[in-house]
Amino acid sequence: MTSLERLIENVDTSIEEIVKLEQDLVRIPSVNTGIMPTGNETEVCNYISKFMENEGIGTKLLSRDYGRDNLIIDYPLSDSKDCKLIFMSHTDVVPVENESKWNYEPFGGDISSGRVYGRGSNDCKALLTSQLMAMVIMKRSKIKLNNGLRLISGADEEHGGRWGFGWLLENHPNILKAEYAINEGGGTPVEVGDSIYYLLGTGEKGRLELNLELKGESAHASLPWLGTNASYNLLKVLNLIQNYQPELNISLPFFKYLNHFGIEENVTSENVEKIIELLKKKLPRLSYLSKALSRMTITPTIINGGVKSNSVPEQIKLICDIRTLPFQDEKYVIKELDELFSDIKEVKYEIDYMSVPNYSPFETELKDAISKAHSKSIGVEEIKLIPSTSNGFTDSRFTRNAGTITYGFSGAHPNDDPMLANVHGTDESIGISSLVSCTKTMLTLAYDLCEGK
Ligand SMILES: [Zn+2]
Fold it and tell me: Are 315 and 367 within one domain?
């Protein structure tokens, strides 16, 4: 038996411990409302520091503000100061919207039918638990690494990372520099026939906030013709947005892989809509993803206006969410908006970048290592990876900006139905099988890339 095989066996004998660590982390409500003071990430960091110290692994905490620490752990038995691989995750969780709809305590860490329930159980404390346990299991077997391995779990991921990875990038950029990083934001299985495909998160769409101001002229509502009602301009703008025909673009590498899913013709911008329809029944998640990855979207999300119920509103503000593809820059967005609103002179707008689109190349040593590690972890000959661009965004944009090739891969087990995860929703959960497969995958990946001995 090789020492890696023995380590993987050690994961199987540590399942109770893995589940307990996950439960303990879920039971610390590190809720991030986006309004300071919030997050309470330090409590998670302190718990982990104590846990790791018992294993002889030191931790470092860095924070912009009290209570909002970021956790940094360098694997102690390493010959090199240079970091080859970063294990990434975050410690904050989104709030619980409607507790009465939950069947489990949101911060109880309950176990039922092979799953751990609770806010953050999936996003992102499962990945964090697996990465921690991968380090612990290697350390217990006194595994030495030739190359550096670092774990970073950030604060504030759920509200833009200004206390987390964003702050680290500005204030401690060297910590984020490595050859490779592995984070959330990918790694869900898609089974087709006998083959198992996994979406590897190689990039993220951009997100902008569009602030529109619609002008009118106030008057008493009893004589409305004396004014100009801004609501009617809002109506025109909403109609235009609803009927917006975005340019269809299939240049992301993702589209080259659709023929693995029973799509025989090559995808073109002419037939992509038809293919999205075809996929809808058989593989709905791939269908939605194909739609999101083939166009820019504009979605109205907030409307504010009017001051009094008997006054004609003079001003209405409309906020929209815009998602762009990696090659659609600010100039492109402005051109699209100018064209869309060209007939309405009462509209003024501003755009604000929340996250710029970002990506890492697909053909890398890290991709091959993930494929190998996860195949071994779930006991199949070979899983196939497909480069996917996320419609949302994660902290990966910060490490990619630091020059680190970063992929999203959560290491989920194929028997763990992704539809049960309910990330950010009611009864969020993770299959225990995924906690185990992810721990094995992270361990194998580190052992392989960092050259364990
Ligand atoms: Zn997350």
Answer: no
Cα 234 to middle of ligand 1, angstroms: 35
Domain that holds residue 351: 206-355
What does the DSSP 8-state code read for residue 419?
A: G
Residues 135 and 193 in one domain: yes
Please, what sign has the CA dihedral across residues 396, 399, 401, 403?
negative
Which runs of consecutive H residues, i.e. helices, occur in 199-324? 230-242, 272-282, 284-292
CA of 308 to the centre of ligand 1 (A): 41
Q: How far is the CA of 24 from the centre of ligand 1 (A)?
A: 18
User: In this structure, are 90 and 171 located in the same domain?
Assistant: yes
Residues 191 and 210 both lie in one domain? no
What would the 3-class secondary structure string for 1-19 be?
CCHHHHHHHHHHCCHHHHH
For 318-373, what is each residue's pLDDT tens digit?
999 999 998 899 999 999 999 999 998 888 999 998 888 999 999 999 999 999 99
Rounded Cα gap, residues 113 and 185, in angstroms: 25
pTM for the full predicted model = 0.89
User: Which of 209, 204, 239, 160 has its CA nearest to residue 322?
Assistant: 209
